[in-house]
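Subgroup meeting minutes
Present: P.N., E.W., G.H.
Scribe: E.W.

1. P.N. recapped why we're keeping a running log of single-chain structure predictions: easier to compare across weeks, and new members can see raw inputs and outputs side by side.
2. G.H. added today's entry (192 aa).
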Amino acid sequence: HRTSDSAEGVIVDHEPAVHIFDNALTEVTVEKKVVGGDKNFTFEAKLEISLFPNETYAYGLKGGTLQQGQTDENGKAEETLSFSLADQQSVTIILPYGTTVTLTEETDQNYTTHVHVVGGHHEGIAGHEIVLEAVRRDETVLFTNAQQTESLTISKTVSGSGASEKKYFKFDVHLEEAGEGTVLTLDMSGAE
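Output recorded in log:
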């Protein structure tokens, strides 16, 4: 017997009929790399499932309990999974063969994001979302977040008669629209 996506399998003669297909499930692994900072990023995975009408399927996060769903009379269904990842962490999503997966990462104004399908047919892109159309093999997607940095140089020149070059001056720096978790680093190595 063949599925709508040409995966071969065997129908076991039992009541009720049970479909067993060699390629019934596939996996998408989401990996995280964070350059600068130690933030956790929240993801949403939207699964658009296309199978036979009223067909039962399994999906979920690897290592957890798989959930079951059922397609409608048109063989369609949608599911959503959420998870969080920090630097060097990963999660694997188990999904029905041929599912379209939309991976969306929360946005953070303090980080730029680059998405890349490892060894895949998708080019790396800037942004917080990627769509994998009709996944028919295991895929790995790498989200890399780089903390944005800016620099500010302050210099002071003391001049005039009687000016003291040994007097200390206080500077106040105010950052407008600095996001949560903004880190300021002061480098005094060039100060005299």
